[in-house]
Design brief:
Low-confidence stretches: 1-20, 44-55, 180-186
Strand order of the largest sheet: 4-3-2-1-10-9-8-7-6-5
Helix content: 25-40%
Distance between the termini: 36 Å
Number of strands: 10
Strand content: 35-45%
Largest sheet: 10 strands, antiparallel
Number of helices: 3
Structural class: alpha+beta
CATH architecture of the largest domain: Beta Barrel
Number of domains: 2
Shape: elongated
Order of helices and strands: HHEEEEEEEEEHE
Length: 197
């Protein structure tokens, strides 16, 4: 950013120097417009770079959630192997001897995947600030009515400042149902912590 500031300062100085002897109000307005446009261009290019800097956040690594002894069905041990490239992230999840691997594009595009419950569906991913958001949508049958419903599972991933702990907030909801019906049944919210190996 400092380099841009020096460049814009030199450009401004050259413009003013070349027109120092001229006092036409029209020319002064033109110079102001040129300087304004140059400064706006610098701000925009810096903002774009800051936006792309979010993609420098890298989740690549192996993470382990130890689970809870004696409650393996409710809180099993889980290992995540994550490989992130410029535009995609691949997550291999191992839980109770079963492995699933999904590849997500980081541009929000939808792709085929297998949910954490080993059900085929659609998924997508995006980075929002320092949070990686993974979303899975699968079809299931409503136990009450027998109707087919969508179940959406959203995972919000965040790394600690030292990148040694991965916190995953898990939300489960039903996008087909009215808000009142979902609220009456309750939304599932779970927070798990993983240690980077």
């Amino acid at each position: 950013m400092a380099i841009h500031g020096v460049k814009s300062g030199k450009i401004s100085a050259m413009i003013f120097k070349s027109h120092a002897g001229e006092s036409s109000p029209v020319k002064r307005k033109i110079i102001r417009v040129v300087i304004f446009v140059a400064l706006v261009g610098l701000v925009v290019s810096t903002s774009v770079r800051v936006g792309f800097a979010a993609y420098n956040l890298n989740f690549t690594g192996t993470y382990v959630h130890p689970g809870q002894k004696g409650a393996s069905d409710l809180d099993p041990e889980v290992t995540l192997e994550v490989a992130q490239s410029d535009g995609a992230i691949e997550v291999t999840r191992e839980e109770q001897g079963s492995k699933t691997t999904n590849r997500f594009s980081l541009n929000g595009a939808e792709s085929d995947c297998v949910s954490p419950g080993d059900v085929a569906g659609k998924c997508k991913a995006r980075l929002k600030g320092k949070t990686l958001i993974l979303e899975y949508v699968v079809l299931s049958n409503d136990q009450t009515t027998g109707a087919t419903v969508h179940i959406r599972t959203t995972e919000e991933w965040q790394l600690s400042g030292d990148s040694k702990t991965l916190t995953i907030k898990l939300h489960v909801d039903f996008p087909d149902r009215a808000a009142s019906a979902v609220d009456s049944e309750g939304r599932s919210l779970e927070v798990d912590k993983y240690t980077r190996q």
